[in-house]
Write a structure and sequence with these properties.
heterodimer, A: mainly beta, rod-shaped, B: 5-stranded antiparallel β-sheet
């Protein structure tokens, strides 16, 4: 099975 | 006051058609130095859209003060459909606007049409996106990538992209069977945009949701080529160049659970 992470988890909030 | 006049309405029409199915509400940030910039995340939080329409994309551009225009893209799309692709399109907003004025001018007939779009207050998280180093980069014809994304979605919910120095392979495995498409780099001297270019620091294998790739290829009309930048275990960057500016999509990869 594949998990789909959120794009937000890869970037730092400004 | 903001006043931006496009030589042709088609540019903004294509931009909005490229993103409106992914993002319903977003803020257009307007400034004299940067033109119009947008950062928005799709409703399922998998795709990030970064748009930059530089002042060079406009025939005339003036923005006296930094402005934020909160837009419902479905509503903006309805208004943009009122004008012809070849019309001049001018967008106008006051300094503290509650509406955006959209004006179309037909170049041949004496016809001017004006529409007012209500603006909204939209809360949005802003993420810092640095210019990342990438393991590899592919530039290829946009229509060819669109066809691959659309065709492979009929086989599987996921599309694997495998890059080596000699090729890029798109691989789909689904219930009815599997398929793969292999492209090799080549240079077309007569039609440079038909070329396929691979730059590789190290080979990469990543898997993406086919649905999101199909959202991304809605931008195909904007540019003859797409550049895809991939890095192991990091979001992929899909870039469509505008005449002056870009539309970028950052897509989170899938991982084996």
């Amino acid at each position: 099975d594949e998990a789909q992470p959120s794009i937000k988890s890869f970037f730092i909030p400004d | 006051m903001l006043e931006g006049k496009f030589e042709e309405a088609s540019l903004l029409k294509k931009v909005i058609e490229s993103i409106k199915d992914s993002v319903k509400l977003c803020n257009f940030n307007c400034s004299q130095s940067k033109g119009i910039t947008v950062q928005a995340i799709d409703d399922s939080r998998v795709l990030l859209i970064a748009l930059k329409i530089d002042s060079g994309s406009f025939q005339e551009f003036r923005c006296d003060r930094d402005l934020v225009l909160g837009l419902d893209l479905e509503s903006l799309s309805k208004i943009l459909k009122q004008g012809n692709n070849e019309d001049y399109l001018t967008i106008i907003a006051e300094d503290s606007p509650d509406s955006l004025l959209v004006v179309f001018e037909d170049k041949k007939k004496d016809r001017i049409s004006e529409f007012s779009l209500k603006l909204m207050d939209i809360d949005s998280d802003v993420l810092t996106i640095d210019d990342m180093e990438h393991d590899c980069s592919i530039t290829m014809p946009a229509y060819e990538f669109a066809k691959i994304a659309r065709d492979m979605k009929t086989l599987s919910e996921s599309l694997q992209i495998i890059i080596t120095k000699d090729s890029v392979k798109f691989n789909a495995e689904g219930q009815i069977g599997s398929g793969s498409i292999i492209l090799k780099p080549h240079t077309d001297m007569e039609k440079p945009d038909e070329s396929i270019k691979i730059e590789l620091n190290q080979p990469v294998v990543l898997t993406f949701g086919a649905k999101y790739l199909n959202d991304i290829v809605k931008a195909t009309a904007l540019s003859s080529t797409v550049t895809i930048k991939l890095t192991d275990k990091a979001p992929a960057l899909f870039e469509y160049r505008l005449p002056s500016g870009y539309l970028r999509y950052y897509l989170a990869p899938k991982f084996d659970d």
